[in-house]
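Format notes (please read before filing issues)

Several people have asked whether sequences and structure tokens are stored in separate files. They are not. Every record keeps both together, in the order shown below: the sequence lines, then the token lines. Line labels are part of the format and must not be stripped during preprocessing.
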Amino acid sequence: MLSTKNIFDGINDIPSEWIFEHYLNISEKLMGQDVKLFSVFKHERTPSMYVYYNKTINQYRFKDFSSGHQGDAKLLVMLLYNLSYGNMVNKVTADYAEYLKLNMIGGKRQMRHHDKYKVVDYEMRHWTNIDQQYWTKFYIGSKLLERYNVVPLKFFTMQKTESDGSVSSILFEYNSIYGYFKADGKLYKIYSPKNLDKKFIKVASYIQGLDQLTYQTDYLVIASSLKDIMCFRTLGYKSIEVIAPDSENTMIKESEMEKLKSKYKKVITLFDNDEAGLNSMNKYKERYGLNYVLLEMSKDLSDSVKDYGIDKVKEQLHPLLIKALKYE
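Then the structure lines:
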């Protein structure tokens, strides 16, 4: 009897989860969960590539923060092997046909519901000498921290619902946890500088520094982080305001960008000087026509201030600002 289990019509019949599992050597079956792994495009010490399930289109996709590549399974194979679309189709269909010969599979894989961990509770605490020692390394004092609504936290709790309905909770309680709050008191991010695996936990989408804009200056700099915003403020530029997106890899929406560009004579970017930062600045230049400043000192502005001091950073940064902003 001829089995219909091993028959497929073409590339669109091949499950995206199989393509990711096969070409990225993912050992676990993709059943709706997200997977974090090392980039296959760039050498990196910390995994920054995600394979995630998009519920809207019922399909797996990928995003690689190291290289900036993102898209569907077909694009992944094209990038991995430097193939045209037609050659990618030939390769994937041939590989899948070979796989089917060796593996009797039938029916569409049922995706399970997977909740991500979310922050459900936290407790504020008083400032300590440890906090002071950390922030003053970046020349950031209590007035700036208060202005940008940075508050030390005693702990925070994250929770998610498993596919079987059970609830899993994790309590994080250690020194040097900080909550970033909007002007209305809502928490939007948690910063844990001593947690090397995950320093930032996004709670809500927010353009950092937006509440602090006066729209009374001529220029706007888009930096890479709230810490960079506060460090820029220490440099004393009275005619420049600063904001930062959720991350360098998060593009500010066009509607918001047009509004910002209408409020200032010039808007530029100042991100990290690594490859990811440069890629992001180039994207802003291509999409919105923004000039950028590449400060080739330490990795980012805040580390440069910490490592070299305010005067040295301003000495290097000032001519770059003049060029990018035509700043006087």
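For reference, the curators noted about this record: The two ends are 82 Å apart (CA to CA). Residues 1-6 have pLDDT under 50 and may be disordered.
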